[in-house]
Amino acid sequence: IDEIDAVGRQRGAGLGGGHDEREQTLNQMLVEMDGFEGNEGIIVIAATNRPDVLDPALLRPGRFDRQVVVGLPDVRGREQILKVHMRRVPLSPDIDAAIIARGTPGFSGADLANLVNEAALFAARGNKRVVSMVEFEKAKDKIMMGAERRSMVMTEAQKESTAYHEAGHAIIGRLVPEHDPVHKVTIIPRGRALGVTFFLPEGDAISASRQKLESQISTLYGGRLAEEIIYGVEHVSTGASNDIKVATNLARNMVTQWGFSDKLGPLLYAEEEGEVFLGRSVAKAKHMSDETARIIDQEVKALIERNYGRARQILNDNMDILHAMKDALMKYETIDAPQIDDLMARRDVRPPAGWEDPGASNNSDNNGTPRAPRPVDEPRTPNPGNTMSEQLGDK
């Protein structure tokens, strides 16, 4: 029986009379599985991704008493799953399932099957007879970051704003402690985003430290801060709306669930989910005083302000890298870890793999390579009023 939670949800929690068809179905199933009459030679197996909502009578000994947790595959599991799905497609000699498995943490079996299928589609569109690592990289980017929307027209000003925004994320992500490595930065619209900065964990994440979570908050605000520093507060766009939402939820969880507030201590202040069928709005009950709620809001705000200030300082100290990364993104549209390494080391940026120069760019020197950021003896704090004119003068 697949999706057992459809009929196996806890009884008696609804607003109705309690005699709906679902409850009758569940009652009859309980009787058939382990009622007064014994059954021999019958094994019942069920699957669900919501074991928390199942009726306790369904899980007692004699019914579904053995529970097998099927989690996401680890790196060895992903490698074996990939090999199974790769049998169906012709592969080039450079394909290494182990490398692909290391680059896909958090992927389920279905995700990996989709990855192989998407890679085969990319190869077919390119009239290739075999699937190479290039197609797998494109497929991974499509699954993780969304499909490219090259038909979407962006003005040069919008591209530049997006480039500064994504560069802000990438620079903060590289310079705060315990952050996942920057995998790719692009200003090609993908999914619902105008640009994407993608961080790829080095291994399967099990838990996160307080320092890692605070680093994530700083990185989330890097894009908005880059816009604010370059264009001024009045010209900050709405592009950071999702970043703000994620950072706020992360900070609130740190305070209310994970005990990372010195003032409130290691206590749980989060509200329960409520009844299964009533929903949050009906079953919501107050679990804390108004004073505690006020302190929680203060702690969340202080946590965000501290990491917001740290991110601002990092960008102010690395303005030359911010401008250089914007130039590289405007030229190449997508940069990978090697280009980001060059930028962070203040070296000339190598072209991305497979990139063809369509012509000399305004942002490049005589050989078409974006200039390395100028070394600075001390941080340059930009003046929002004249930063753009300085940049145009440099060009």
What does this entry look like structurally?
By secondary structure, the protein is mainly alpha-helical. It folds into three domains: 5-59, no CATH class; 75-145, Helicase, Ruva Protein, domain 3; 156-344, Up-down Bundle (Methane Monooxygenase Hydroxylase, Chain G, domain 1), CATH 1.20.58. The protein has 16 helices and three strands. A three-stranded antiparallel β-sheet has the order 2-1-3. The longest helix is centred in the last third of the chain and has 28 residues, at 290-317. It is flat, with a radius of gyration of 26 Å.
Low-confidence spans: pLDDT under 50, at least 5 residues?
274-283, 360-368, 374-395
How far is the N terminus from the C terminus? Answer: 65 Å
| Series of secondary-structure elements, N-terminal to C-terminal | HHHHHHHHEEHHHHHHEHH
Report strand %. under 5%
Q: What's the gyration radius in Å?
A: 26 Å
Relevant CATH superfamily of the largest domain:
Peptidase M41
Strand order in the sheet with the most strands:
2-1-3
In CATH, the topology of the largest domain is named Methane Monooxygenase Hydroxylase, Chain G, domain 1
Mean pLDDT: 82
Indicate the CATH class of the largest domain. Answer: Mainly Alpha
